[in-house]
Structure formats: structure tokens, C-alpha cells
Amino acid sequence: MAEIDLGNLMAFDPHHQEEVVKEALEQGTKLVQAVADALFSLPSTQDPDGPIVKLPAPTTKLPRSKPLPKPRPPTKWEVFAQKKGIQKHNKEKLVFDEQTGTWKRRYGYDRVNDDNDVPIIEAKATDEPGTDPFAERRKEKKSKVEKQEKNRLHNLKQAAKVGALPSHIQLAATALPITGTQSMHKKVSKDELQNVAGMAATSTASGGKFDKKLPGEKPLKHEKKYRKFLPAAEGSGMGALEKQQNEQILNKLMSKNSHEILNVEKAVNMYNEKKEKKQRKRGGNSSDFKPNKKSFKKTPYKGASNKGKSK
Amino acid sequence: MMRIKTPTKRRVKRELDKRAPKLVETGKKTLILHGTKTSSVLNTLLTEIYHLKKDDSVKYSRRNDNVRPFESGGETSLEFFSLKTDCSLFVYGSHSKKRPNNLVIGRTYDHHIYDLVELGVENFKSMGSFSYDKKLAPQIGSKPFFAFIGEGFESVEELKHLKEVLLDLFHGQVATNLNLAGLDRVYVCTALSSNKIFFTHCALRLKKSGTVVPRMELVEVGPSMDMVVRRHRLPDDSLRKEAMKTAPELKKKKEKNVVKDAIQGKLGKIYMPNQQAEFTDTKFVHKPKGAKREWREAKMMQAEVAANKHTGKKLKIDSE
Fold first, then answer.
1. Where is this region: Disordered (chain A) (predicted)?
2. Which residues of A touch B25 (CB under 8 A)?
3. Which superfamily, per CATH, for B26-250?
4. What ipTM score was computed for the predicted complex, to two decimals?
């Protein structure tokens, strides 16, 4: 490599950086030319942007960045359909609705033959009295949806076991609710916590005026009560709102205490007494066996005497 | 209890689908990040690598104290960044007294480190130090040529590994269709010794040569540097096998009985059963009307027997 001049005790290395670069570029040009020779001899198709060549598959294999996607296991229905030889047919999305004479979706919103569109259900002899057929239908539909959701979850779990869950779906574990009805607590956000802290601060006698503020605690967004005032002038619309509100309150009170205003026992007693007296009076008048004593004496105020007796 | 969680926004779903593993991968994204300390050389180098791969890379600008790819425990946050940015290649620069101008290029598989190469950068020349006709400047995302010069890339294990890593880092998107007018860049790597290579990036000038193939001319545009391989870690054999898998669906089945010929084109072999010259079916037996019943029946019987004889299939090779 190095040139040596023993007479001058000198050594010289011609492979300087620039030489290296020059050599590299020369060699590189040769190699690229070789690649180009092969590349330009490939059959090409003309495109407005330039000739397009179809490249063969690369021979130098490079590693993948992610493992191969796993095939999804068949769902329970797919297994069943396979067993029974049921084939999938693509149905048309739109169906002609004879009732309305229009084309409607087969499924989904505003669909054909929707149960919700039927306003009247004919009663049958087998119907139990006291049941709402509409409510029953709604319940049935809901249970169907729930069943489907359960099946879907089962199939997804099966897929998750193999590791073939679709990329956009996650199966999140929810904590078991104690009573079976409560859903899991949501994670409380920062803003919600701030609001709650603010509300708690105002619950002192001074409305949180003299409380020590924590570092980073913000002042309340709305310090006072939310109040709404109705228009002072009377009129129609908004003007009559105050009157309406008062009436509403009054009605509520009346309806609440209505059974106290009418004393049923007392009213029944009064009614019975009145009836008895009337009967007695009529019986006295109509009897032919007893001499009518009072017929001789004419009472000037019959109504008044009656009134007195009833009391 | 389980709950099915799906994205509420379509954009999120699209993004998740983009990140999902695919049968055929088209390209890898690159994460570019700094270590505890970086020299000015490394700073410019990392920026320029980012410029070279601008269409599919993410550059972090903060210092990362807890990223040490070769040490155990130093890869956790790196793997997290890889997961977060969906990058499966990373370029990490650090500068210390022991290892000045240190560049670590690594790959990940399933967001875990697959292999690593550590390089020392010497004689660095940035893009700015080259003067050339700016019309030649390569376009972002164009498919590059590679030229690996030297025996070392074949015989020395370190350089062989480095070659694969550099190819993976700079080869861009996997393309099946290539526009010949868009060829505008070359990466030239020359093995100088058993652990040193010279790396440079050149623009291509296509000159008319009178033939279909134009004459290639390289114009150095930078960055260019010497790379000294320091440490390197190859992947496990099992991991390598796993990562090199191709989808079984994509493997072509061997086509039987079809031969392609340069002159005659596509040739096929057809297998046929023996042709039967006699009447084989009772349906088509000639039934003369006037013949006596006994004769007719006897003839039918004869035909049936003949048909049964020929049902055993015989193959005869017939080349077309």
C-alpha cells in the first residue's frame, strides 16, 4: 500500500481520504450502472410520470417489524353454518316497502317492517288481561339485542384467546359490581375533581371565604347561587310565568291535601242520617192507620222545622 | 365481567388499523433520539438522517438519560418509545469520553429489541459542506440505489450485519412498481478495513448514452462519514426465524404440468382417459325397430358388457 523511499527514510500513503472517496465513487458508479443495466432492460409500461417497471421480489430478506397476524377462529355461527352447509348470500340493502310504497333499509333506522311502526296490535283470545303488548314487544327486542351482544362477547373472547382480536377492539375487564346492578365507577377527571373541591369549599358557613387555599387551587368559577328572576311586569307568555308557577304550587298543595278537605266518614254519616229522616217523615205521612195529628195544626214554616230536625 | 371497548371516533380506528400487524409490511418507521450527551457532529448527523428519511421517521429532540440500548434495563424506555411512535428502527446518538460520537442503529421486532450495531463516526461531512447543482437534489421518499464495495461485507460478520442494518434503515418503502424517472439517489458504502467503512450519500445524474440505459453519474451530496463498528448484537436464532417468517398464504403453490418456454410460450400437459370407439352407453345403442325382441335384448346385453370393460380408467400422457 504505502510507498517507501528507503534512501530518504520516507513513507508515503497514497490512500488519502479524498482518494478513498474518489475510488468509492468510481466503484459505486460501476455498480449502479450494473444495476441500471438490469433495471432498464425490464419490461416497462408508459405512464405520464415516466416509465414504470415491475420489480421482482427482493432476495435479501429483512426481518418483519411485527409478528404475522393470526387468523380469526370461526364464530359459533360460522361453525354451525359450516356443519349444516349454510351458505352466505349477500342480500340487497334496500327493500321495497309495500305499506308505504317506498324503498327502505332492510335493517337499521327507518327499516322495512319495523315493529315500532305498527300502531295497533289486535287482541287475541289468549292474551292475558292487564299486559301491555307494546311493552312486551319492546322487552322481547331488548332481550334479543342483549343475547346477540353476549354471543359477540363470547366470540371475541375466543378470538382473544388465540391472539386474533381485531386491532381496534379491546376487551376491558370491569370490576364485579356488588349488587349486580351498579356499574363500575368511572375514573374521575381532573376537572370533575376540581369542581367537587370547589363545592366542598363553599359548604362552610362563610362560603369558603376564610378557608386556606391549597397550592394550585383555583378560585371558584361561580361563587354565588344560580338565581333566575322572572319578569316583574304581568302579561302573556313569560309575563304569565309567575302566575303559572304560583298556580302550580297551589294545585300541588291542593291535590296533596285533597283527602283531608273531604272527610269521607263524616259525609257518609250525614248522608245516611238525612236519608233516614226523610224515610221516617215519609212513612209517617203515608200511614193510614195512625191518625194524623199534625194535620190540624198548620205549621207556618215547614222548611224551618225540617231544618231544625236535621240538625 | 368483560366489556368490549371500541374506539368512538373513526380516526382512532383508522390509526389503530394502521398499527395492526399486516401480512405484507410495506415499510418501517424510524425513531431518532439523543442520549445523555451529544456532540455537534452527532446533532447534525441525526438531523440529516431525519432529513433523509423525513417521510417515515420520528425525531425526538430531548435528551434521554435512561436509554442505554446495550445495557440490560436500559432498553425499557426505548421499547416504550418504539411502541408509542410505532417505529421499528431506531437511531440513537450519544457522546462520551470512552465512546466519542457514538451512533447506535437498532431494529425492533414486536416492539422488543431485535439487533443492535454501535458505530463510531469519524470524518463527518454534513450536507451543507457539499456544493452541487441543486436541481440534482434527491426527492424525499425516492427509492435509493445501494452500492456495497469490498470483500468485508461478505466475510466479516460485523460488516455483514451492518450492511443488513443500513439496507433496512435507508431502503425506504418496499415497492413493486418503480418509476424509472424517479431514480435520484445512491448510498455508497466501502469497506476500508475489517471494522471500518466509508459511507456516503450521492445524487444520481442520468446522462444520455445512446442506448436505452442511461449513463449513471454520481454527485456526492452528503452526509458522508467513516463508520467504525464498535459493539454489535445479533438477534437470537429463534427470534430471527420468527421475524423472517412470511405469510403461508403468500407462498405460491407449485404449478403442476405447466412449463414455460421462451419460444413456444406456455406449455401444458393434459391427461386423458382412453377413448372408447365402441358404444359405451346403452342409451345410444341402435335399436332397429323391426328386429325381434330376443335379438334386440341380446344386443343390448352385449353393449353393456362392453361398457363395463372400459370403465377402468387408463391414463395416457399427451404432450401438446
1. 42-75, 122-150, 199-243, 265-311
2. 64-66
3. Brix domain (3.40.50.10480)
4. 0.76
